[in-house]
Amino acid sequence: xxxxxxxxxxxxxxxxxxxxxxxxxxxxxxxxxxxxxxxxxxxxxxxxxxxxxxxxxxxxxxxxxxxxxxxxxxxxxxxxxxxxxxxxxxxxxxxxxxxxxxxxxxxxxxxxxxxxxxxxxxxxxxxxxxxxxxxxxxxxxxxxxxxxxxxxxxxxxxxxxxxxxxxxxxxxxxxxxxxxxxxxxxxxxxxxxxxxxxxxxxxxxxxxxxxxxxxxxxxxxxxxxxxxxxxxxx
Length: 234
Ligand SMILES: Nc1ncnc2c1ncn2[C@@H]1O[C@H](COP(=O)(O)OP(=O)(O)OP(=O)(O)O)[C@@H](O)[C@H]1O
Known about the structure:
six-stranded mixed β-sheet, 8 helices, globular, binds adenosine-5'-triphosphate
């Protein structure tokens, strides 16, 4: 099967400091993949490189066979923050902007997701809590039809009950052959939706395994992930 995401020999430096070192990673279509690692491991940076925000890297990044940044951008959805918008912007204005900018943005799908997230279109960014903003980011991301969804710690501010509902529903919002790469510090809560896990450690890919394979040899995905760090602390 053709890779949906293909990263070859990727090295990224910022101010002479190596942040990502010789990353090789292939993801296939239709997968939900966790990107795990400790604070500062490079999860956000890797997403920024994949999405074409971070430039001047060495190596190649292809999405559905396309390596040019503009082509890649059209094939992925990465909403790392809403910082481009003024604080007084209302949700409905952000949606109008998305409809203009992204041809694949589906207003009806957004409306369903907005209701699911219990968000009010008239609300301004300045009136929204961290969790509400995260819900909006998720709703905006899944209102587009793209090959690759990059979700950077999407649930950190969302309360436990809503988080569970969102995690259980994500699989329904994703087009069948699209792939999701979702970063987190922990695997516990998202384990149930995952097909694969990727761990970044020491600036590079430390492991890339299917959850099926992990479950064959370990009690659970959580157990496996924790064992990697426990061994190091001893
Ligand atoms: N603007 C920047 N300038 C220089 N170094 C940076 C910059 N942003 C991040 N870094 C460095 O890059 C490394 C990776 O950071 P990154 O934010 O990608 O990690 P992360 O895995 O997403 O962390 P977290 O889990 O804390 O969000 C860190 O060592 C950090 O110090």
